[in-house]
Specification:
20 strands; globular; 6-stranded parallel beta sheet; alpha/beta; 12 helices
C-alpha cells in the first residue's frame, strides 16, 4: 500500500454492493452508487432485509400487476440497519443507532398527503417498486424521519419485520378491529399471519384462520388463532366451507380479512361475514374478481381496501418492545449476502413450502 492509499481489501470494502434484478430469475450482486447525503437524510448500514411476496413476483416475472421492471433494479423493502452518517439537520438520530426503515417516501405536498393519507400519494418513491431501487444492499440513504430507532430489546430482524406487520396494523385500523370484533382471516401466508397477530393485539376476542396449507395453519394455531379451517381451491366448495367457518367461529363473523385476493377467497369472505360486518381486502392476487356482491350489499356488508400503511412504525415497535406481538417465529429461513445465497434465498421464498419469512443477515 502506498502512502495515503488503500489496500485492495479496503477498496473492495468501500464499494457499496447491492442485489440487482437483471432478468427473470436472475439476481447479480454489483456496485450500487448512493445519492449524496441530504441535510435531512441518514446513511444506513443494512443488517436485516426480508423478502416480500412482491419481491418474489418481480424476481419470477419482472412485474407485479402494472408495475414492470424495465431496467436493472435493486430489490428489498423490509429492512433495518445501523446509522453510519447523519445529515446536518438530523437531531433525533446519531451514528450507531439501530433503526427500522419505512420504505415509502411520499411527496408531502399533494392534497392526499396534506390530508394525512400519505400512503395513497401518487408520487410516492417506494423501495423496490419500479423505477425505484430497494434496500438489499450494504448501505442506503434514506430520509431520517422515515427511520425509527429500535428499542434495546428489539432485534434488527424484528425491526425489518415492522414492514409486513405494518400491513396488518393498517388493515386492522381500517376495519376498526377491537375487543368486540370476531375476526376471520383468509390466507395464511406472511401477511395473513401478521394480520392475525395485529388483530389479537387490537383486542379481537376470537380469531379463525382459513387456508390450504396444513403447515401454515398449524403455525397460525401456534401463534394464537383460536381455530382453523382447511379449505380447497375449488370455488364450488364455498357454501359448505362457509358453514364450517361459522361453526368454527361459534359466533358471528364481524370482520373478515381476505389476505389472498382471489375470486374464491373474496366470495368466502362476503358470504361468511355477518350482516352489517366488514370485509377488508388485504391481498391483491387478482386485479379483477367475480364475486357475489349484490347479496353482500343487501346485508350491508362494508368492503374496505388497504394500500400499504401510514403512521404504523411507532405502534409496531411499542408492541414488539412490550412483547404484545412476537414476530420471531415467522422468520423461518436466514441467508447471508453472497451471490449464491441471494439466489438460493429467492428460490426458497418462491417455493414457499415451509418458508414463511426469508431474511437476509448482511
Amino acid at each position: 500500500m502506498g502512502k495515503g492509499g488503500m489496500c485492495d481489501a479496503e477498496k473492495k470494502e468501500a464499494v457499496n454492493m447491492a442485489a440487482w434484478l437483471v432478468a427473470k430469475n436472475t439476481l447479480k450482486i454489483e456496485p450500487f452508487k448512493l445519492p449524496p447525503l441530504g441535510s435531512c437524510d441518514v446513511k444506513i448500514r443494512m443488517k436485516a432485509v426480508g423478502i416480500c411476496g412482491s419481491d418474489v413476483h418481480f424476481f419470477k416475472d419482472m412485474r407485479v400487476a402494472n408495475s414492470i421492471v424495465k431496467e436493472p433494479m435493486v430489490l428489498g423493502h423490509e429492512c433495518a440497519g445501523i446509522i453510519e452518517e447523519v445529515g446536518g439537520e438530523v437531531k433525533h438520530l446519531v451514528v450507531g443507532d439501530r433503526v427500522a426503515l419505512e420504505p415509502g417516501i411520499s411527496c408531502s405536498r399533494c392534497n392526499i398527503c396534506k390530508d394525512g393519507r400519505y400512503n395513497l400519494c401518487g408520487n410516492v418513491k417506494f423501495f423496490s417498486s419500479p423505477p425505484f431501487n430497494g434496500a438489499l444492499a450494504n448501505q442506503v440513504v434514506h430520509p431520517a424521519d422515515l427511520c425509527f430507532k429500535l428499542p434495546e430489546n428489539v432485534s434488527l430482524e424484528e425491526g425489518a419485520m415492522c414492514e409486513p406487520l405494518s400491513v396488518g396494523v393498517h388493515a386492522c385500523r381500517r376495519a376498526n378491529v377491537g375487543p368486540e370484533t370476531n375476526v376471520l382471516i383468509i390466507g395464511v401466508g406472511p401477511i395473513g399471519l401478521v394480520t392475525m397477530l395485529a388483530a389479537r393485539a387490537f383486542g379481537a376476542p376470537r380469531i379463525v384462520i382459513v387456508g390450504c396449507s396444513d403447515y401454515r395453519l398449524s403455525v397460525g394455531k401456534e401463534l394464537g388463532a383460536d381455530q382453523f379451517v382447511k379449505v380447497s381451491t375449488n370455488i364450488q366448495d364455498v357454501d359448505a366451507e362457509v358453514g364450517e367457518i361459522q361453526k368454527a367461529m361459534g359466533a358471528q363473523v364481524d370482520v373478515t380479512f381476505d389476505c389472498a385476493g382471489l375470486d374464491k377467497t373474496m366470495s368466502t369472505a362476503l358470504n361468511a361475514t355477518c350482516a352489517g360486518g366488514k370485509v377488508c381486502l388485504v391481498g391483491f392476487g387478482h386485479s379483477e374478481m367475480t364475486v357475489p356482491l349484490t347479496p353482500a350489499a343487501a346485508r350491508e356488508v362494508d368492503i374496505v381496501g388497504i394500500f400499504r400503511y401510514k403512521n404504523t412504525w411507532p405502534l409496531c415497535l411499542e408492541w414488539l418492545k412490550s412483547g404484545k406481538i412476537d414476530v420471531k417465529p415467522l422468520i423461518t429461513h436466514r441467508f447471508g449476502f453472497s451471490q449464491e445465497e441471494v439466489m438460493e434465498a429467492f428460490e426458497t421464498s418462491a417455493r414457499r413450502g415451509r418458508a414463511i419469512k426469508v431474511m437476509f443477515n448482511l
